């Protein structure tokens, strides 16, 4: 049992389980988040000093409750269902931009 627990710890499995237990099963690296959701707050993202502050700026602009996400050292963590909500907000913004371009 000790060897198995050591292997889990070395592979990061225990950290992943701890994160899921706290209720944040979905995660995304900052560069990936910034590339995907930049459209939601382009001005704020452009002013951000780093990717972490850019992610925080996006969350502030869309007024996402701070209980729904956490900003880690290298990743954004989301509660269940929040990535789906983020995708809906993103699709709505893309639709607005396309409608504006066609007008």
SSE order and pairing:
Blueprint: H1 2-10, H2 13-21, E1 26-29, H3 30-37, H4 42-47, H5 51-61, E2 69-71, E3 75-78, H6 82-102
Antiparallel strand pairs: 1-3, 2-3
Helix pairs in contact: 3-5
Please describe the structure with a list of short key phrases separated by commas or semicolons.
about 100 residues, mainly alpha, three-stranded antiparallel beta sheet, about 60% helix, elongated
Radius of gyration: 17 Å
> What separation lies between the terminal Cα atoms?
66 Å
Strand order of the largest sheet: 1-3-2
**Coarse shape:** elongated
Beta content: 5-15%
**Counting H and I runs of at least 4 residues, what is the number of helices?**
6
User: Which range best describes the helical content: under 10%, 10-25%, 25-40%, 40-55%, 55-70% or over 70%?
Assistant: 55-70%
* Class from secondary-structure proportions: mainly alpha
Oligomer: single chain
Compact description:
The chain has 103 residues and is mostly helical. Helix content is 62%, strand content 11%.
């Amino acid at each position: 049992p000790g060897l198995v627990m050591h292997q889990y710890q070395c592979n990061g499995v225990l950290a992943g389980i701890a994160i899921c237990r706290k209720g944040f099963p979905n995660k995304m690296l900052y560069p990936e988040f910034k590339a995907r959701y930049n459209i939601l707050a382009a001005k704020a993202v452009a002013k951000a000093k780093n990717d972490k502050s850019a992610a925080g700026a996006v969350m502030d602009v869309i007024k996402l409750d701070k209980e729904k996400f956490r900003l880690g050292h290298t990743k954004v963590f989301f509660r269940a269902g929040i990535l789906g909500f983020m995708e809906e907000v993103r699709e709505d913004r893309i639709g607005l931009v396309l409608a504006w371009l066609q007008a």
